[in-house]
DNA sequence: GCAAAAGTGTTGCAGGTACACCCATGA
DNA sequence: TCATGGGTGTACCTGCAACACTTTTGC
């Protein structure tokens, strides 16, 4: 190609970080410290550095924001956004990553952010750029992945109970599940969870058994939310 | 950010175009006319232009390559590849698109390609750049989407028989299906296909009824390939 | 014992597989 | 009437939803 009619562009990663607090799905947001959209909430993220791969950039940004070790969270690419005017600073493509972390520690502000907060997804307001669309897309991916994969355990600490796991599904799907059928189904699915041979002290009622994440990644059969 | 340690980059789209010929899944490949990887097979694609959105760039490239009208094929974004050294020309991010076309007309060479061919996916050799990885990823997406969506009709011409549709599944999954159960299941799934009230002349046997694509996008219940 | 939460048994139904069988056409 | 592929009926099996019921703890 002789004429350079293609764009010289910058490429950023944006992070949709979900965690669960108090039975509700929360999203990690930062308050922007610089224009454009100064003081507006936005997704954490930043530019991909020279010589840096996309996933590495996403992991780096998440670590800067949460101080979490890379093997303590789930992260995967979701979609890339490239509308010509999505960012007033120029041509910026954004590769969105979905991250899921167990019981996130109190977040800290990053380089470009005034502060970071966890916000219940139901209360997320108008965000900077096209970030509302990015959140919607990532949430749909997370909801679908709970059906066919063991992704839900990524929301849980190292050991957890079946009820903990069920509350993950209920928070993400915003839908109640039958505790008894759920219990049976999780234990019947090979590799979903493995017995930790411990009981948790409980404030009331029979103490539940604790489990760890199993080795399976895909669920056979899936946990369908359909049956509307 | 004061220091510009992030990459100034170019962004390209690469197309994984599938079609079915003679009951086999085929992939559209071009022979590169310019370095790097000159004379090597590669995915069709090209740089995103100034002021052009990602999907528009992918549709444009596909039209240039196949002369097909935009509403005659299915296209969707799959994944973005950004390893620092994936392209020897410099920092180039590639957004991969999966496209599915019915009975592709003979392809033509594009601006950057010597020629274009349809190759059975089983016979795809070593491709330029990281394109083998891109094809593998896109194929897995296509296989999965056949389970949960009506994507298979995108491989079919305007009117088709249930057997045509079944052969799509068999080609993509590389697995034979029971014709009788498949038939019943497709007709039982609301909105998958609608009766075209025509019969096709057949060389032997009872003439099959013809159908058109229905309005449904998702399949309830899904067409599971599992049951290994 | 009573409350509370964990965990099990059972029944009815929806949907899948396997395969016997009937239908419509050309030669 | 036979071969061929389209299409239907049916029997068996798996897996889920619903919900009654039992178990194990703290008070």
What does it look like?
Two copies of one chain form a homodimer. Chain A has about 230 residues and is an alpha+beta fold. In chain A, about 25% of the residues lie in helices and about 30% in strands. The first copy, chain A, contains four helices and nine strands, in the order E-E-E-E-H-E-E-E-H-H-H-E-E. In chain A, strands 1, 2, 3, 4, 5, 6 and 7 form a seven-stranded mixed sheet that branches. Chain A has a two-stranded antiparallel sheet with strand order 8-9. In chain A, strand 1 (about 10-20) and strand 2 form a beta hairpin. Chains A and B meet through strand 1 and strand 5 of A and strand 1 and strand 5 of B. Chain A binds a DNA duplex (27 and 27 nucleotides) through helix 4.
Question: What's the rounded overall pLDDT mean of chain A?
Answer: 91
* Biggest interface, CB < 8 A: A-B, 32 and 32 residues
> How does the helix and strand content of chain A classify structurally?
alpha+beta
Q: What fraction of residues of chain A sit in β-strands?
A: 25-35%
Order of helices and strands of chain A: EEEEHEEEHHHEE
> Considering DSSP H and I runs of 4 or more, what fraction of the residues of chain A is helical?
10-25%
Give me the count of strands of chain A.
Answer: 9
Q: What gross morphology of chain A would you assign?
A: elongated
Low-pLDDT segments of chain A: none
Main sheet attributes: strand count, strand direction, barrel closure of chain A: 7 strands, mixed
Q: Give the CA-CA distance, first to last residue of chain A.
A: 53 Å
Which oligomerization state do the chains in this entry correspond to?
A: homodimer
């Amino acid at each position: 190609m002789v004429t350079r009619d293609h764009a010289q562009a910058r490429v950023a990663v944006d992070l949709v970080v979900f965690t669960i607090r108090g039975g509700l799905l929360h999203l990690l947001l930062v308050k922007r410290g610089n224009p454009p959209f100064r003081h507006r909430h936005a997704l954490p993220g930043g530019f991909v550095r020279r010589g840096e791969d996309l996933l590495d950039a996403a992991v780096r940004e998440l670590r800067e924001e949460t101080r979490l070790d890379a093997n303590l969270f789930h992260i995967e690419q979701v979609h890339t956004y490239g509308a010509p005017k999505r960012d007033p600073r120029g041509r910026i493509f954004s590769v969105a990553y979905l991250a899921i972390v167990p019981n996130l520690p109190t977040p800290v502000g990053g380089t470009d952010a005034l502060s970071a907060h966890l916000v219940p997804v139901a209360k997320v307001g108008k965000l900077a750029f096209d970030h509302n669309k990015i959140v919607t897309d990532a949430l749909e991916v997370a909801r679908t992945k709970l059906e066919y994969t063991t992704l839900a355990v990524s929301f849980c600490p190292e050991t957890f109970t079946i009820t903990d796991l069920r509350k993950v599904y209920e928070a993400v799907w915003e839908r109640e599940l039958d505790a008894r059928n759920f219990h049976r189904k999780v234990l019947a699915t090979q590799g979903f969870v493995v017995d930790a041979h411990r009981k948790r002290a409980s404030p009331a009622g029979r103490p539940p058994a604790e489990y760890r994440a199993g080795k399976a990644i895909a669920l056979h059969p899936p946990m369908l939310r359909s049956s509307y």
